[in-house]
Design goal:
The chain is of the alpha/beta class. The chain has 13 helices and eleven strands. InterPro entries: DctP_fam, TRAP_DctP_sf.
């Protein structure tokens, strides 16, 4: 009997040791493999940093949504269903489920990256709750892509020239801006923009400065109109069941590492506008080949029109989509940072 008890105890100890030695595997999906955020941050974080920081107690593996042939809209549903444990993505791709997801990056309302980070932090608890309720997911970070501006295969020398133009968007709030200046919004996935510009399906496309350069939009677009209409704020979120299966120590390590990753991404993005615009318009370029697009900077009149559209169209339409309670919450969070009030017309 004593020998049986001793053997049973040994087996239990071995099982416990085996469990402790089995790393947590996190299957992740990232954004676009051609872009800086994936190449420098998302990919290395999951493929290398997590294992290194945790002594291989947490091991990641990641594939980009472009490599998987995903368009973005389905990513959080796949996380909810447990196909992936973690996803990086854009709130604009999940806003169809609930307009509340748009609130931290409404088109044209934020004009510098420092303020955009304040907006993201103010709205974080709202996004955290929405991810939990909609996708059974733990929101762990909000980070930016570079300034979202307009890249046109057409003569565009100011905001008035956008009237009648077909303009690629990837989020409803960007569509609100386009329609507010008299254009027609067209939803086109990132991977399909170049052929759409070539064939005249769209006249212009909205994306980030560095995103446009690294994806070679300069090969088909002629005018770089640097009117900032958003930041391409992105999220990192994890399946809640997977999160809850981790130990408190593993969760703490994950949050510490994610926080450091987030800081690195904000810092790098802050430098990318000037570099990308110089490269794409034929200026100094140390990161690749120069483009030859015409640089069109917005006039003071353009900026005034943009600001009016941001308030009277973008913010008002969003408040109508999201509802009175949602708008009131925004006013008490983001609105206080920006000095703006959301109210449906």
């Amino acid at each position: 009997m004593k020998r049986f008890a001793t053997a049973a105890g040994a087996l239990a100890l071995m099982a416990g040791t085996a469990f402790a030695d089995s790393p947590v595997l996190l299957k992740a999906v990232g954004t676009w493999s051609s872009l800086t955020n994936y190449q420098k941050h998302e990919g290395p974080f999951f493929n290398e940093r997590l294992a290194e920081a945790s002594g291989r107690q947490i091991v990641g593996e990641i594939q980009s949504q472009s490599g998987l042939g995903l368009k973005g809209f389905e990513i959080m549903r796949l996380v909810k269903n447990g196909v992936f444990d973690f996803a990086f993505g854009l709130p604009g791709y999940v806003a169809a489920e609930n307009a509340i997801f748009e609130g931290a990056d409404l088109s044209s309302v934020t004009q510098d990256i420092e303020t955009q980070r304040q907006v993201a932090e103010a709205y974080y608890p709202t996004m955290e709750k929405a991810f939990a309720e909609t996708y059974n997911a733990k929101l762990l970070m909000l980070y930016p892509f570079p300034s979202q501006t307009l890249w046109c295969n057409a003569e565009v020398n100011g905001i008035e020239d956008l009237k009648g133009k077909k303009i690629r968007v990837y989020a409803t709030t960007l569509g609100d801006f386009v329609e507010g200046v008299g254009g027609t919004s067209v939803t086109v996935s990132f991977s399909e923009v170049i052929p759409a510009l070539e064939k005249g399906v769209v006249d212009c496309g909205i994306t980030g400065t560095m995103s446009a350069y690294t994806a070679n939009w300069q090969q088909v677009a002629t005018h770089a109109y640097t009117l900032r209409v958003g930041w391409g704020l992105a999220f990192g979120a994890m399946n809640m069941d997977k999160w809850n299966s981790m130990s408190a120590e593993q969760q703490a390590l994950m949050q510490t590492e994610i926080s450091a990753l987030n800081d690195r991404m904000w810092a790098e993005t802050a430098t990318e506008d000037a570099v990308a615009i110089s490269c794409i318009t034929g200026g100094d370029c140390e990161i690749g080949e120069k483009g030859a697009m015409k640089l069109v900077e917005p006039s003071s009149t353009d900026l005034a029109i943009r600001d009016t559209v941001a308030t009277d169209v973008v913010l008002a339409r969003w408040a109508e989509r999201c509802g009175a309670d949602c708008a009131e919450n925004w006013n008490n969070t983001v609105g206080k940072v920006l000095g703006m009030t959301a109210a449906a017309n």
